Amino acid sequence: SQQGEEDPQALSIQEGENATMNCSYKTSINNLQWYRQNSGRGLVHLILIRSNEREKHSGRLRVTLDTSKKSSSLLITASRAADTASYFCATEAGGFKTIFGAGTRLFVKA
Amino acid sequence: ETGVTQTPRHLVMGMTNKKSLKCEQHLGHNAMYWYKQSAKKPLELMFVYNFKEQTENNSVPSRFSPECPNSSHLFLHLHTLQPEDSALYLCASSQPGGTALYEQYFGPGTRLTVT
Q: For residue B101, what pLDDT band results from cuts at 50, 70 and 90?
């Protein structure tokens, strides 16, 4: 079955540093999304990249997509303590079914 | 606030109890979702409703019974649950079509503990 898998599972950095998270998936997709989840709360949509796009920016976020390698990366620049959260990639391949990965837990130390 | 509310936020129930989770969205969306999030496991899609019709049932046990009376409300009826059903239950909604295709808006979740 199709599933996004994030790497690393956990990441700890200092405030001001950049954080990079990777996601791999198994089957063809129409788009890929990144979400953030603060501890014990709901997920918040960050960015959506379509299969015909290679890079997308939103504020301090930069997402890349390589469909030949079935992978995506999320870069958070100049990280802040408030960026501490879990980050999930999600893939959609038709219909209303969205598959989420297990997530990367990011810790940003002040 | 995402425009999706869930009640209750916390629920403790015995294995023989019957309870219901409620989700309401104020975004004018037509699709609503139930997810289960257990510790150290990926988010699991349970059910999807589009225009009040169920479009996905991801092999969920019958002790979970969804209900969608209209596009703004979604319920999850629970009965004779097992301890392994303890988890965070998340509701989401989306508006198909356009650039926000399948972008989902999540509620804060209901933390369920089955004793």
A: low
> At A52, is the secondary structure helix, strand, or coil?
coil
DSSP B81-94: --GGG-EEEEEEEE
Closest approach of B69 to chain A, Cα-based (Å):
19
A99 contact residues in B (CB cutoff 8 A): 42, 45
- Alpha-carbon Rg for chain B, nearest whole angstrom, is 14
Q: Give the integer Cα–Cα distance in Å for B77 and B69.
A: 13
Question: Any chain A CB within 8 A of the CB of B45?
Answer: yes
Residue A93 binned pLDDT confidence (cut-offs 50, 70, 90): low
Whether residues A40 and B111 touch (CB distance < 8 A) is answered with yes
Q: Which residue has the higher pLDDT, B39 or A66?
A: A66
Question: B56 and A43: CB-CB below 8 Å?
Answer: no
pLDDT (tens digit, 9 = 90+) per residue, A95-109? 677 888 889 999 999
Q: Which residues of A touch B43 (CB under 8 A)?
A: 43, 88, 100
Q: Distances from the Cα of B13 to the Cαs of A64, B23, B61, B101, B112, in angstroms? A: 44, 19, 18, 37, 8
For chain A, give the percent of residues with pLDDT over 70. Answer: 94
Distance, CA of A79 to CA of A20 (rounded, Å)? 10
